[in-house]
Amino acid sequence: MNSKTLRKLEYNKIISLLADHASSESGKQLCRSLLPQTELSAIEQMQEETAAAFTRIIKKGRPSFGGCVPVEASLKRLELGASLGSGELLSIGRLLDCAGQIKSYGRHETVDEFPDCLDSYFQRLEPVTRVASEIRRCILEEDVIADDASANLQKIRRSIQSFDGKIHSALNSMVNGSMRNYLQDAIVTMRGDRYCLPVKAEYRSQVKGMIHDQSSTGSTLFIEPMTVVKLNNDLMELHAKEQEEIQVILSTLSSMAAEHCEELRVDYEVLTTLDFIFARGSLAVDQNASRPVLNQEGRIHIREGRHPLLDRTKVVPTTICLGDDYDLLIVTGPNTGGKTVSLKTTGLFTLMGQAGLHIPALDRSELAVFTEVYADIGDEQSIEQSLSTFSSHMTNIVSFLKQVDEHSLVLFDELGAGTDPTEGAALAIAILTSLHRRGIRTMATTHYSELKVFALTTEGVENASCEFDVETLRPTYHLLIGIPGKSNAFAISKKLGLSDEIIEEAKTHLSDQEESFEELLSDLEHSRRTIEREQAEIRAYKEELETLRRRTKEKQEKLDAQKERIIRDANEKAERILQSAKDYADETMRNFRKFGKENISASEMEKEREKLRQRMAKTSSKVTLEKAQPKKAYKPSDFKLGTSVRVLSMNLTGTVHTLPDSRGNVEVQMGILRSKVPITDLDIIEETASYTSKQTRRTSSGKMKMGKSLTVSPEINLIGRTSDEAVALLDKYLDDAYLAHLSPVRVVHGKGTGALRNAVHQYLKRQKHVKSYRLGAFGEGDAGVTIVEFK
Question: What CA–CA distance (Å, rounded) separates 95 from 25?
């Protein structure tokens, strides 16, 4: 890719963001050197690696590669047999520790977890635990060796501590004894690694020893007393032995590391590569990006893409298509409407996708693989464009028109601007026609009406426009493909206060053809908005119908399951009764035969007959199913919304959900089950004023009836009701729920157009016994449900 295109599309800023996500300096260098690829296989591999890193970051978090420090110079010294210093060995230890942590991070949590393309990288890592552990044990910090790094070092340091104690004891006795008056300060000091006393110059002859230094004024001499000279000499000798032993330890550690130079080199390379891959995955997570689908047919379909350098909380997603039904897209519209952003988004997404980066767009967005991307984008949008500006743009265009082919993507911003409009438009049409004939994927922005007509009348060329709200004088930044954009100059000027006389005068200077074209654009825009509004309403109705259909299906399935269970239980019970009757009949026949053989008396036979009659009566009572009858004959007017009833055929209690229809059927809500039943199968439950300990609870105002808590459902469904019906049902339901001490409760009103939800909320605002209400969260019904809490 040419550097000019990379700079104009701000690819370098994306690379800078990518480098910020790398942990190691070597990983950052790989990020900074990343360029778009042109081989599909290489791009697919990089995209797969980015996707694998993205998934691992989501599941396990972002791994750190801070321990991946360069060790190549140290490895070369080891291969020559040199001994490394403590700092270099610490760097090798950090590298091995990092390799161990990343290898552990790369292990799958479960045996059936699906492997990915990064497994091979993790498997190549060799932490060389023995070397890393030994370096950590012996070297605490740079130039700080542990006492137990070796037995000899530990012994030497104990001797040093012993001699230190002896020297300090001897000198402290002098400081606090006879020499106290000879000293400038009652302290022990050091000069040249030897312990001394600060003696006043006039008492030099009173203190026998070696002079090592004097103060700048000459009033103080630093003397090593003769009594500690030998002790200091022995201490210096021990320090020398300590340094020799440290060199032995470092040499041993260097020899251990030298045996694994190749593993260390591989660890560094693999960790650097993984840091680069996880930086791409981390950038994708940060941008909420997705993997694009790549093709070599020149097809681009960006689904709600967001320019990655704009504030993602404010940027408006845009959908861009190119290369399928048309290979040339002409984008028109007012200034600051988003034309250039759409152009740059297309080019930048192409570069990012070919660099193995995910793009901030919806899943299944498509990008084509191009061998080259050419862009002529003028960021300096000035109303005073000189000939030199036009010449500069044209020079750039000429330079790449000689090189483009069918595998190139060409982007023009304000093609033909900066010169006479008539000539500029003609030149722009000629350039675009040349590219279109060669089948080169091209996207261009313009203000020229001639290009709009060119797009409307040429096959394989499509118009697009950036939507603009004339009422607010603000662009919406939505890209509308298939509709040419209006300049809106007259409408904007009128909104800004320009008089109607001047505007009407301006319109007289437009030709009839130009005026008709602008009117056509206005009609198209009006029709588009009407269609979009109607489509939104249709989608809302479809969603509501789908919800109702799903709920009806669920209820029917529950009813079918309950019916099957009741029939199954009845059959099993009937079989048991029949088997019992059969067994008893057999027993009776045996008894009659026995009576005939043994000449049993008539009284005994009568007793057996009586037993048989009693048992048959008992069996008959089990078999006979008496159909439950309501307490009295009810009229349709007896049933009100919310009336507590018992469904006799199901032996379930519930509340009336709808008024009786023309056939005498009502819908009854029985817990989560709602069914339509005839009023002849219903018995109205009279709520008694029973105040037992289980049905009441004492409050500050006395006792409250709790019987309703047995029948009031924790939710009410208002879908399909008018606002007035819904409010009436809700009023009754909230009173029952409040008396039953149910809190919180769910009010199901659906999403739809929002009218029913608004009516419910307006009603809840006026209820004093409602403490709070809110829309349902994810998993509670979302915006189709309101959760109500009572005081």
Answer: 13
